Structure formats: C-alpha cells, structure tokens
Amino acid sequence: MSPAERALEHVRARSTGRPLDRTLRVTLNFHPERVVAALADTGRYVSQFVTGTGNGGLTAFAGGDRWRWESRIFGGAYDDAPPHDRPVYGGLNFRLRPHGASPRFGSAHLRLTEGTLDRTTFCYPDSVLEPETFGTADRMALIEIARADDRDLLDDYIEAHVHGPVSLETDVEALVLDPSYRGTKIEDAAYSLPCSVEWHPGFRLDVDELRRHADYRGRRYVDLGVELAVDGVLTPKMIGDARDRYDQQELKKVWHLLARFGR
Predict the structure, then answer these.
(1) What would the mean pLDDT of 21-32 be, rounded to a whole number?
(2) Which of 99, 169, 171, 257 has the CA that lies 20 to 30 A from 230?
C-alpha cells in the first residue's frame, strides 16, 4: 500500500455514519498572491510541506506540530514520506458557502471534483485541536456533529485532507476569486489555468465597522486594517498588496477581521 492508501484505510476504520452527499464539494482556500502564479507554473496544488508557507501555523517539518498531527491522524502513514506525497488541506463545503468552506485560510479557493471525495479524509474540529471524530466519503457522520456545534464563523468548517496529487486539469472544477482581483495580474494568471475561473460575492469591510471589532483579534490589527484600507474600505487585494511591507502573521490577523465581518 502507498502512504495515501494506508492513511485512508486508517481514517476509514475510525469513521462512522452514512455515505456523503456526492453533490457536496471540497474546497481549498488560500490567498491568491501566494498561490496562483505557482499554479500557473506547475499545474498542481501542493502542501505546506512543499511550499514552507501557509495561512495557519507554519509547523510543516519533521517533528513539527503539523508533522505530529498528521502522524496521529493517519496512523504514521506519512512519517517517512517525501513532502510531495503528503495530503493537502481544505474543507468540506457542507454549508454551500460561495466563499468556500474555510475562508479563514484565504479569499480564493479551488473547488474540487466529485472524484476527489473518494481519496479525501475529514476531521472535526480542525486538526490543531487533535480531534477524535473522523470521516470518509463512505462514512460521514461529521456534518451532523458540526451542525450541532456552536463555533465562531471562521472555525465553522469540517477539515478535509486530499490524498494524492491535486491537478488543476483533472481534479479542479473551478478557481473561485474575490472580485477585488478583477483587472489584475492574478486574474490574468487565473485565466491561463486549465480550469474554469469564477467569482464569489466578495469580502468588503468599511473601516467604521472594522473599528467595532477590536476585541476580536486586537486593537493593533484593527489599526493596521484601517491603515491598509482605501477610501474607507478594506478588501483582500489591499491586504495582499501589503505582503512585502508587513509581517505575514500580522496581516493574517487583519485578514481574519475581514473574513469574519466583511462577507
């Protein structure tokens, strides 16, 4: 068995429930500044173990937290696997949100094909919390569990792990972008990809509304968001345009404010 096959079998043995509704889709959320150009170059979406970057904790290395969580969830299947063989992370869009299942991790997303469901495992809540409930496409009790839970909007997702390569040509229905990227190099790169391009309704946050939420991530991130805003409005592109001038972890907190209160 390959590491992916061993991981799938390990999670399936720990899962319960009825088969998943096959009309549901897994989405992979990300910030397009970091990803779309790489997608155009390689035609594949790869994990943090390959890129060394991400929108959550940066612990994807041997012995790091991400490595340890994967070892626990997948029964050690990937402990000795090369980075390109490891799964990529997304969410099951069971709430049918146009912004994707887990916009906490970015304004853009890839919507995967139905066929990828059969090589995807799921957990709830996020793997950072060391969950005890798991699912596969043929054993999916997590939706009922998630619907009965009461979590913050940014934490309200079923985590998905797609095992095996994710090819834009064969595994992706569409790249879905925020409208703030219309007329940009990101749009140009997107239309060069071998998949459809779509646009969701967008994230926009007035600075007056932003100032009302200093208790969410902290006053300093509200102030930074106000600084980045143009004409009193903050959008994903404005945060992306600042990536070379500010610490990425600080920009992440500003994004959380926009993603939470600017839909």
Answers:
(1) 98
(2) 99
